[in-house]
Write a structure and sequence with these properties.
This protein is of the alpha/beta class. 45% of the residues lie in helices and 18% in strands. The chain has five helices and five strands, in the order βαβααααβββ. The protein has a three-stranded parallel sheet. It has a two-stranded antiparallel sheet with strand order 3-4. The longest helix is centred in the first third of the chain and has 13 residues.
């Protein structure tokens, strides 16, 4: 099963981590999160129940266009476009551009795993 690992860290922690990687002081392990959110609230907003259902629909039906996805979900194409662009920034969905501007959404993962440290240690 292909799983995307997500982590939660403050802006300051993410900045320090990025700088440490850039300096060569830190080499991320292969099993560390690839995507980071600044709070559980921001994670929950992007992956709301409605958006998780949307990802499940895309994974199950493999729509060939946003119009096809809109028809199967009852959501407006403009709303889907905004939502999917946000989820694309986090790597939750890939948007493939095809002929005549057609956009085909694809979910590249079968699961998303959240890693949440309870302390800074």
């Amino acid at each position: 099963m292909t799983t995307l690992k997500v982590g939660i860290a403050s802006y300051e922690e993410m900045k320090a981590r990025t700088l440490a990687i850039a300096r060569g002081d830190l080499k991320p392990a292969g099993d560390e999160p690839k995507i980071w959110f600044t709070s559980t609230e921001s994670f929950a907003k992007v992956l709301s129940n409605k958006n998780r259902a949307l990802l499940a629909t895309i994974a199950a039906t493999h729509p060939l266009s946003l119009q096809e996805l809109a028809a199967s979900t009852g959501r407006k194409t403009s709303n889907l476009s905004r939502t999917l662009k946000t989820m694309e920034r986090y790597g939750f969905v890939q948007l493939h551009r095809g002929e005549r501007g057609r956009i085909r959404p694809e979910v590249p993962y079968q699961a998303i795993s959240l890693e949440l440290a309870l302390s800074g240690g």
